[in-house]
Amino acid sequence: MILVSACLAGLRCKWNLESAEHPAMSRLFREGMAIPVCPEQLGGLSTPREPSELRDGRVFAKGGRDVTREYRRGAEETLAIARAFDCRSAVLKSRSPSCGCGRVYDGTFTGRLVPGDGVTAALLKANGIAVYDESAAGEVAAAIGVSTVAEEN
Fold it and tell me: At CA 134, angle to CA 63 and CA 25, rounded to 5?
């Protein structure tokens, strides 16, 4: 089993009530090989919600509200799920203050990216779980024998 951002699996849980569906990840989910998680929802935030970004180690909603506690709670819940299902890898949504892996938005809400990991990605990595963003989703799916093109029936 792999952990996957629920939005990549096709669930409409992004801040703006949209998905970021990735064909390979939604196929893994449909075939029962991926556990979808939305750390923001697991942390108690609603959908839709204000967009948030990381700044100085904290997470702030665009309106200025500090939502770090919710993001940390969501990361802990995500880790608990990963452990419960013995997930050793995760494919997460890029640039997110939760799931971003390698680069995240800089906290100014201007679209600028800076090196770093989101709260959940960092916690998973610290606990020995390999974390990839959706740019590697096809490779991860192929490594476990799933085509990157969703088949329509």
Answer: 110
